[in-house]
Amino acid sequence: MGFILSKSMEQNFQKQQEFMLLNSRLQMERQLVMQNQMRERQMAMQVAWSREFLKYFGSFFGLATLGLTVGAVKKRKAALLAPVIPLSFILAYQMDMAYGSLIHRVRAEAESIMVSESERLDVPHGMPTFESIEKSRRAKAHLSSLLEK
């Protein structure tokens, strides 16, 4: 009788473990999907911000270039056109960011760094562990209890 009861309990325990494993896997998959959606939304916001900034900077660049060109012709000083050169680099960068392949090149470089220079990505003092977090939490709790006295 006891053997049958223990066998039944063991089967229930195994089913419970399988259910918990399935549930934790499902929860992790949901978290990964959510994190990826948040990353995609942040990237979309960054690209949208670049496109909006490009509209304003493009207008500024056009007016500044026109004004500097007119001033250079009237005063016969080619040096007045000097600010157009760095401004054109900024404009080209913003255009690449907003509509070009800058994001693809940055992603490729990041992947290269992750493969060939992974030591640059190490967290100082290594990844936090449960033990290190608990030790810090206990130290703070101890300190706050001392301060209360």
Automatic annotation (TrEMBL):
This is Plasminogen receptor (KT). It comes from Culter alburnus (Topmouth culter). Pfam families: DUF2368 (PF10166). GO terms for cellular component: plasma membrane. One of its GO terms (biological process) is positive regulation of plasminogen activation.
